[in-house]
Amino acid sequence: MKNIKYIYLKITLLLGFIFTLTISCERDPSDEVEFASYSNTGDVFIDGFMGGLDYFPFNGSFSEAFSVDTAEKYMGTASMRFDIPVFGVGYGGATFPSLEPRDLSDYDALTFWAKASQGADINEIGFGINGDTNNKYQVSMQNLPLTTNWKKYIIPIPDPSMLYQEIGMFWYGEGAETAEDEGGYTFWIDELKFEKLGTVAQPQPKILNGEDVEELVFLGNTINLVESGLTQTFNLASGVNQTVIAAPSYFTFISTDVDVARVSELGIVSIVGDGTATITATLGGVKAKGSLTVEVSGAFNTAPVPTHNSGDVISIFSDTYTNVPVDFINGYWEPYQTTQSTIFEVVDNNMIDKIISYTDFNFVGNQFANPTINVTEKSNLHLNMLIFDEIPSNLDFLISIVDFGADGIEGGDDDTRQQVFFNSADFVANEWSTLEIPLTLNNKANIGLIIYENVNGSSLSNFYLDNIYFHN
Amino acid sequence: MKHINKFKKRVQTLLFKSFLFAMLFIVIVSCSTDENQTVANFTELVMQDEFDTDGALNTAIWDYEIGTGNNGWGNNELQYYTDRTKNITVQNGVLIMSAIKESFEGSNYTSARIVTKGEHAYGRFEARIRLPYGQGIWPAFWLLGANCSDAVVWPQCGEIDIMEYKGQEPTTIHGSVNGNGFSDGEAITKSYSLENDRFDTGFHVFGIEWTPEYINYYVDDVLYNQITPSDVPGEWVFDHPFKIIINLAVGGSFVGSPNSETTFPQTMLIDYVRVYKN
Questions:
Q1: Is 0.90 surpassed by the pTM of this model?
Q2: Of A108, A197, A200, A412, which is least surrounded by CB within 10 A?
Q3: Complex prediction ipTM
Q4: Do B230 and B164 reside in the same domain of the chain?
């Protein structure tokens, strides 16, 4: 891919050269002159938008968050001002695209000066948002700490050679994530530009957060490497190791056996055959730390397709029905919960079937409390559950269905719960079981939570869930 | 820390001034030598190791220094120095010193330190080195008085640090002299920082020009300091032969310990060491 692009560039360069030579006697260059590369303007905001720049607030963001401030600035006459609303009012978020693509390949970082009206962490900040390429070269720095003094910040470019026609100059997203998180404050950014610092060095790219991970997977599975941590780290002049989240297209992925697993440019691993394969990667010619070894053992049998009429169903998790808003399928309740989870996708009959996988299970919950759901008209909770290899003989599996009561919130004195126990006789190893739980709750107008637990020393560790829904 | 920062600023101003001065000099008096300026002229090579023979270090020129010295070579350094190939070897025309994180003889790190068999007084001493990086990494290219002994204890025997470097400050090196009344924290030091570059991504030349009247410090083609007898608050002990030492320390009072972000192994590459006679 890269080679083709380079050759193309060379040819245009050559053409440009010949063109200049042959018609250099003419007075005006033709309008049809095509330049071999894009503008290499690095400035983004100095005292105003530089080099042709636009501003697009993100959907749902506080539209007045961004303004140009001439009173507060680090240098010159103006700075970018961002007013972050208080908790509950929304968030500030926008992208600042260049009107024309720019060649940023000679720079090594996006730099800026910033300060805030109070100590604050910017949730996400970076560059590379480009609708035309699906944010192919997006970079994000998370939880950037700002102080009340102007300070210079550096966001390194994971591999500058990729950015020869980039539009996404800058983006940010910051809001109060909880009532305790900072909100209702202002931060300023000034002298925003791409720079060649010359001191961005010692790259340490990582996939899977630098871990060597082994996974048991099935034919048709897909695994998204973006979700498991793709980062680039550089050592800066300050001695600080600065890590950014790098889009998968910065990496070159390698599979030891493409007949078992293949990786797309977007970091999606597709399981295509039986056997074992290891996925590694390089970034800018540097081997990334971390790997994913997949062991594929046949096809994964998906859960039976539900047959209830969609009009009779309120679905929490299924691919057959439209699901209600779900807060989480794993609350990672501290400090005692050990359960980890992933949602993996199986391609079955050209349909994507999502399945919840729980590992290191002790207890876990599915919450859907915003809003809670009213199942007064429903008679049953339906679940499909799968346990591989062996059903623990001591299996004592408790499912609790929790109604939050009239106040609609968990806690208080009006919560009620229905508890149902299952044992080893209810399951067959390697086969999907269908659990039908008749609802016996008196109040079921504000259901917000389903909890799964090992009780009485039950040793179930791993299982799969699908098709969680209420019906009549 | 603050002290060093202040120093850096002064260096930059000085550098800028000397740059301006050099410009003026070139333009106005390019044909005559300023009478205050001492021009160094060291051309006769008296010692050199180009590290052009792959394999073990040339022990006709160098001795290994093994172990932990006294109290971590006087600095609470954490490494154990060895002569093993994994810590020190010549490959592809460079001497490679590697600091490794491993348990060895009671230490948690191993590395290497070498000293010349021969000794020299005065001249131009230089080495071309690519430095390592990371918190707690402390490479040095320096001279120690050849008369250091129980009778003439350090710092009376003298120490000239041509290059010292903290891995956590990858753009800055330090040049110092140590003698009685000006050693360790009170050593006469000047720091030199690269702009838009760093010492761990390419080779740089570190050198001094040492005469009875002064010691000039330079990095690449930039002369950044001159120390004369009047600059030191004690006896000028730089009047007798010294030995050259190159070492790659881990931890110690000068740099602090490595942390979880320090990657190992760290390697220092030395392209050559040369001494020119006065």
A1: no
A2: A412
A3: 0.80
A4: yes
